[in-house]
Amino acid sequence: xxxxxxxxxxxxxxxxxxxxxxxxxxxxxxxxxxxxxxxxxxxxxxxxxxxxxxxxxxxxxxxxxxxxxxxxxxxxxxxxxxxxxxxxxxxxxxxxxxxxxxxxxxxxxxxxxxxxxxxxxxxxxxxxxxxxxxxxxxxxxxxxxxxxxxxxxxxxxxxxxxxxxxxxxxxx
Length: 172
Description:
Blueprint: E1 10-11, E2 16-17, E3 22-23, E4 28-29, E5 34-35, E6 40-41, E7 46-47, E8 52-53, E9 58-59, E10 64-65, E11 70-71, E12 75-77, E13 82-83, E14 88-89, E15 115-117, E16 122-123, E17 128-129, E18 133-135, E19 140-141, E20 146-147, E21 155-158, E22 163-167
GO molecular function, one term: transferase activity
Pfam families: Hexapep, Hexapep_2
Keywords: Repeat, Transferase
């Protein structure tokens, strides 16, 4: 199901927006992006080409999500966040197709790990954010990082696993 076109926001003809999604005024959703059920996207957001937003995700105002990003359910992105190209937010700590007994893994066989990206944070290209992580206000994640633990407010982290490099005291 596709949301009805709106003069309040722009969606490319190839984008797929579920009718239950709510998209804020001035937002732009570019080609081949998919917005699932019950997604909330704030005002003046830009979602680049081939962005996937899973069901129930909330995105604040003035967020920029570059091409080829995947944001899975259980993720909250606050206002003023920048997400570079090819960033992935995962929500399953123990991903498997089958259980150890060989049965297919179903919804009841796993627990969603939540991810929160606080306002003003910036996540560099190609980074991966694992479940049960909060990225602090105005913090930065360097390109190609794998974020396995919480990131403090106003902190630069990078690497695999991402490690604290700088705490900007002036930011606090």
